Queue: 2 jobs
Job 1
Amino acid sequence: VLLQASGGGLVQAGASLRLSCAASGRTFSTLLLAWFRQAPGKEREVVASIARGTGNTVYADSVKGRFTISRDRAGDTVYLQMDSLEPEDTAVYYCALRRTGRPDYSAWGQGTLVTVSS
């Protein structure tokens, strides 16, 4: 499975961005799609995840009410709508895929940089 992320950029605080991530290849066993981020000097953290089949979502407390994760009907593209961006959201954002029966995220996108200026 290959994941291709896009949509990052430089914005001012309070602005919005939408990230996209398209999965290709053997996606039929996908259980979860997620967005992670890693800020300079910090560990990677999960931002949000969505179940490919049910559409159930989970968010980190830091982004609840500001970010929305969604997927297309086929479940092969995942989006992250980021509103009311804050400088603390500055990070490289990665999409990731977890397969059924696997405890880990086994496929990762290349990362897209989001920079929020104050």
Job 2
Amino acid sequence: QVQLVESGGGLVQAGGSLRLSCAASGNNLRFATWGWYRQAPGKQRELVADIDSGGRANYADSVKGRFTISRDNARNTVYLQMNSLKVEDTAVYYCNTLPIIFGWGQGTQVTVSS
């Protein structure tokens, strides 16, 4: 069973940066499209970025130009570099495939203060 472990979150001031990591157990994950999702309090979980097996990335309009998704297939790890963070980026961040195949990990909390 594939397990997803997100890390790298924290408390940062607006304008700051964080780098999230998602480590996935299992084999043959390099063929999947991976995404970073987030869920803010009182809101539905949303997809913010995804990257396919060829390295092509897509971003939600709200993060375009500020976030960068990348992957290391050898390490079964997906990253999310978040720059110019805004208060509205505050959420719990999760990774999963796109479409969603696996159970959710515990997520990593990102809190951006003004």
